[in-house]
Amino acid sequence: MSAITVHIVNIVSPTYQQVWQVREEVLRKPLGMSLKNEDLGMDANDTIFVAQTDDKVIGCVMLHHLNAGLMKLRQMAVYPEWQGKGVGKLLVQHAEEYASEQNYKKIVLHARMVAADFYSKLGYHIVSNVFTEVGIPHVVMQKDNGLDLLPNQRRCTFV
Ligand SMILES: CC(C)(COP(=O)(O)OP(=O)(O)OC[C@H]1O[C@@H](n2cnc3c(N)ncnc32)[C@H](O)[C@@H]1OP(=O)(O)O)[C@@H](O)C(=O)NCCC(=O)NCCS
Fold this sequence. Notes:
The chain has helices at residues 16-28, 87-101, 116-121; strands at residues 5-9, 47-53, 56-67, 70-78, 106-112, 125-126, 131-133, 136-144. The chain is of the alpha+beta class and 159 residues long. It has one domain (5-153): Aminopeptidase. Strands 1, 2, 3, 4, 5, 6, 7 and 8 form an 8-stranded mixed sheet that branches. A hairpin with a 2-residue loop joins strand 2 (47-53) and strand 3. It is globular, with a radius of gyration of 15 Å. The relative contact order is 0.16. The protein binds coenzyme A. Residues 26-27, 76-78, 83-89, 111-112, 114-115, 117-118, 121 line the site of coenzyme A (COA).
């Protein structure tokens, strides 16, 4: 198997179309929805992380600036055939590392209930009641980000 690498891209990167596709296939189509009906204006200001192998995007996650010190992690998606192989964890670790480097103290996210245990394993805890988003139950989860990591404590190298 080829190596899985994580990269930061933006909406003008050629790769962005593949980011759109993985979100559409994994996050919207199973709900009978489409990104075509959504305003994706936030994407332009977000930091977009992609996991790739053989130049193909197999997963993504995005970080959105909320306020000084606080970021929202959103649009976490891994293609079904790549799930359960550590890709989601790798993406979140890269996003957290990036947030730490940018001095963000905390990350929040809206977790689908079916994914809450995935985030729990990564150190996030539930801070809300259950609410509905895109027609399915969610909870708000958050994590105080590991800050001021010394260079030799870093888990990830951006490539
Ligand atoms: C949820 C998702 C992003 C996880 O990505 P992944 O690449 O499959 O997860 P990983 O392989 O990195 O798993 C890391 C750990 O979490 C666990 N895990 C993964 N998905 C889980 C889930 N849905 N429920 C409970 N545990 C889960 C894994 O077993 C693994 O545990 P381990 O470290 O003890 O071995 C992915 O399954 C996905 O895209 N699901 C559909 C879309 C979705 O629900 N996105 C989240 C929206 S909030």
